[in-house]
Amino acid sequence: MDTAFRHLHMPSDLACEFLVVFARMEYALKATRFAFRNRNDIFASWDRFANEAHERFHAETSEELKAAVDFLWDFPPRKQFLADDERVRFRDFEIDPAQRQLQ
């Protein structure tokens, strides 16, 4: 198992736990009203979920959660996109002013 995660620079058990939680969350979004379709493909609508969950999300409920939120604001993940050369590339995350902060 460790060889699959050797380039992540983090413990493999932590990476596995993240993947399991992420997959379950994405499925839950798709199985509810937080999904959108493109022909026969279904995608999780993370932005829609973030916009609707914004009022219920309270980062200050724990120091650990607040630290995690602050970290994501300070070091946002990059987003994938399909470049003109048909290759998957990454771009910096840009905050959409039309979206809620939880985005």
Secondary-structure map with pairings?
Blueprint: H1 12-31, E1 35-38, E2 41-44, H2 46-53, H3 63-74, E3 79-82, E4 88-91
Antiparallel strand pairs: 1-2, 3-4
The count of helical stretches stands at: 3
* Overall shape: globular
Structure summary, number of beta strands:
4
Beginning-to-end CA distance, first to last residue: 32 Å
Structure report:
This protein is of the alpha+beta class and 103 residues long. It has two domains: 1-44, no CATH class; 47-103, no CATH class. Helices cover 39% and strands 16% of the residues. It contains three helices and four strands. The protein has a two-stranded antiparallel ribbon. A hairpin with a 2-residue loop joins strand 1 and strand 2 (41-44). The chain is globular.
Summarize the structure.
The chain has helices spanning 12-31, 46-53, 63-74; strands spanning 35-38, 41-44, 79-82, 88-91.
Question: Key features?
Answer:
103 residues; alpha+beta; 2 domains; two-stranded antiparallel ribbon; 16% strand
